[in-house]
């Protein structure tokens, strides 16, 4: 859906409605969720549509569930005694504790550490449509942010490199993709227009990356920026 | 304070107390909302046993994640309805029920709540319902097929035996009309 312009309020609202209805395909959903992670306007659109469409739930005639449902819920949620709690944590160990701590409900919680207002976003998806990296460009800050979400395992000695495919010029490397955390790449202000208008490519390289833009390794994936903020102009 | 606002405040308090692991508040929350949430679960799954499993899992999620509820972002019923709907649609996708039926009521006739209970449980105004009732039948049907049955545009077109373009237009126009009507309330 390359014609999607999510900086247009009407199109963004329509996308939010389709998101709530579950009508976006995998790629559209990933792009919209990347926008959702950082755009207050998109978050509000989703909230409004969740509220509007809740009327569909509201019209349903209430149905009292049988008593056995509460009994099962109560058994599953009743706080354990002090002693059973102690045994639970002794058995779980440190790694289990860490795993338990990362469990979090995903909707309506903005991920911590997300950079401020962004202008463009590109979501890198691996096989099975899992998000591997989110690439954001802030023209205001002259910075590209590459955040590792869940990168796939790579062959030993291999890394992924991100490229800006500027028309008629040698591809510009935006650096190696991080295995974890956020990688910040300053952009020379003269490259701002190129950032906006150029597609992106990811290649598989040796640990040092490609020697130059003409000798890059095999292309793993490519994509386009999705505009986020309509107010920023170059 | 309207009855709707009073109920929202009570539900918000229950969720706050659930976040503090006050089990009694989960029981209170259940008594106030389970009939509504069970109706959502039944509407999507169209199978009483599965709907009960869904409701059970949804309340366990509500209990575990009550601390993540943000009153600034959603009304408590909208938040809980979304949890139930997501849970039910996940179950539906795993074991797809192909037939789309509006015969859910056959499952529910035996132990539905009293008229008084329903009045308390219902939060929406007549004007909101008029917005929904005012949609052309095909617009409303498509929105419901997506919302409750998890169908894609193509699946709706196949099921209704209409062109894909018509289905997309009905969804889009239905949403615009619904938004305009609800915004005017």
TrEMBL record, chain A:
Pfam families: RskA_C (PF10099). It comes from the Bacteria. Residues 98-212 form the Anti-sigma K factor RskA C-terminal domain. Signal peptide: none annotated. The chain crosses the membrane at residues 88-109. InterPro entries: Anti-sigma-K/W_factor (IPR051474), RskA_C (IPR018764). Keywords: Membrane, Transmembrane, Transmembrane helix. This is Anti-sigma factor. It comes from Parendozoicomonas callyspongiae.
Automatic annotation (TrEMBL), chain B:
The keyword Membrane does not apply. Residues 37-96 form the RNA polymerase sigma-70 region domain. Residues 127-178 form the RNA polymerase sigma factor 70 region 4 type domain. Keywords: Sigma factor, Transcription, Transcription regulation. Gene3D superfamilies: 1.10.1740.10, Winged helix-like DNA-binding domain superfamily/Winged helix DNA-binding domain (1.10.10.10). The keyword Nucleotide-binding does not apply. Belongs to the sigma-70 factor family. ECF subfamily. This is Sigma-70 family RNA polymerase sigma factor.
């Amino acid at each position: 859906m390359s014609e999607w312009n999510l900086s247009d309020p009407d199109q963004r609202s329509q996308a939010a409605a389709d998101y709530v209805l579950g009508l976006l395909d995998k790629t559209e959903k990933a792009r919209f969720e990347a926008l959702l992670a950082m755009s207050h306007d998109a978050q509000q659109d989703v909230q409004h549509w969740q509220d509007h469409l809740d009327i569909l739930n509201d019209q349903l005639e209430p149905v009292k569930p049988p008593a056995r449902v509460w009994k099962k819920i109560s058994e599953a949620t009743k706080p354990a005694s002090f002693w059973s709690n102690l045994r639970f944590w002794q058995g779980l160990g440190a790694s289990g504790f860490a795993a338990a701590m990362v469990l979090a409900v995903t909707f309506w919680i903005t991920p911590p550490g997300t950079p401020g207002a962004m202008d463009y976003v590109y979501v890198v998806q691996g096989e099975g449509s899992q998000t591997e990296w989110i690439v954001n460009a802030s023209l205001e800050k002259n910075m590209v942010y590459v955040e590792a979400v869940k990168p796939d395992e790579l062959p030993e000695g291999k890394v992924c490199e991100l490229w800006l495919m500027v028309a008629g010029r040698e591809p510009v490397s935006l650096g190696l993709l991080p295995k974890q955390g956020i990688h910040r790449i300053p952009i020379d202000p003269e490259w701002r227009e190129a950032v906006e208008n150029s597609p992106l490519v990811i290649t598989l390289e040796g640990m040092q990356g490609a020697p130059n833009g003409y000798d890059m390794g095999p292309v793993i994936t490519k994509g386009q920026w999705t505009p986020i903020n309509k107010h920023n102009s170059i | 304070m309207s009855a709707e606002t009073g109920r929202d405040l009570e539900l918000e308090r229950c969720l706050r107390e659930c976040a503090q692991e006050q089990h009694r508040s989960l029981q209170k929350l259940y008594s106030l909302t389970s009939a509504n949430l069970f109706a959502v679960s039944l509407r999507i799954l169209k199978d009483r046993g599965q709907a009960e499993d869904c409701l059970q899992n949804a309340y366990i999620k509500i209990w575990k994640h009550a601390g993540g509820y943000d009153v600034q972002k959603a009304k408590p019923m909208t938040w809980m309805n979304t949890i139930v709907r997501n849970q039910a649609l996940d179950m539906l996708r795993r074991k797809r029920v192909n037939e789309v039926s509006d015969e859910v009521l056959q499952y529910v006739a035996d132990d539905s709540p009293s008229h008084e209970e329903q009045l308390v449980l219902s939060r929406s105004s007549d004007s909101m319902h008029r917005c929904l009732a005012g949609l052309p039948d095909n617009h409303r049907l498509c929105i419901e097929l997506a919302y409750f049955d998890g169908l894609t545009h193509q699946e709706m077109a196949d099921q209704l035996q209409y062109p894909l373009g018509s289905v997309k237009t009905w969804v889009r126009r239905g949403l615009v009309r619904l938004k305009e009507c609800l915004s005017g309330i």
